[in-house]
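so my prof wants the structure for this chain in the tokens format not the other one, which i didnt know existed until like an hour ago. anyway here's the sequence
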Amino acid sequence: MTEPDTPLPWRHPVKIAELAARKPTRFDLIPDAETRACIAEWAGITALATLRLKGELTPKGRHDWLLTAALTARVEQPCVITLTPVVTDLSETVERRYLADMPEPEGDEIEMPEDDSAEPLPATIDLAAVALEALELALPLYPRAEGAEFSDTTVTEPGAAPITDEDVKPFANLRSLMEARKPDA
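here's what i got, hopefully its the right format
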């Protein structure tokens, strides 16, 4: 995944002051091939065949805004077991509430609010940044190729006997010692 200070490879800022105050503003963002390649590198994935964020920004009340959108993407990542390419189709619903009077958290320790879609209203909303955040959250953490399974692998130095789970259990041999000490009946 990306580092926090890494600049975003795709931007699409929308100034709130320039939006219609009484009706939704619709958008349909699809980056070109060169931008998708930059996004794939930025996100640490092999390829990004498609990416689309389609939705609307709707005014709520006098100062708040609601962003609702559908994110769709086709990503390619290496399998965590075999490193073969794994293609995944993503489809996510994205919702953000931008609040003009969002209270600032106080104190050293802050509890996460139950509503994680609420954010302070900025002067400019970067729709591409919303798409990139949703993409990163939707990416499979451990992509696996069909049929790929972990197998037991034992590695030792040449000539050494591998240690098994039974070898490291402190009472593994106790039963055999007890059996050996029993007098024959």
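also thought this was worth mentioning. The helical segments are 33-43, 127-138, 174-181.
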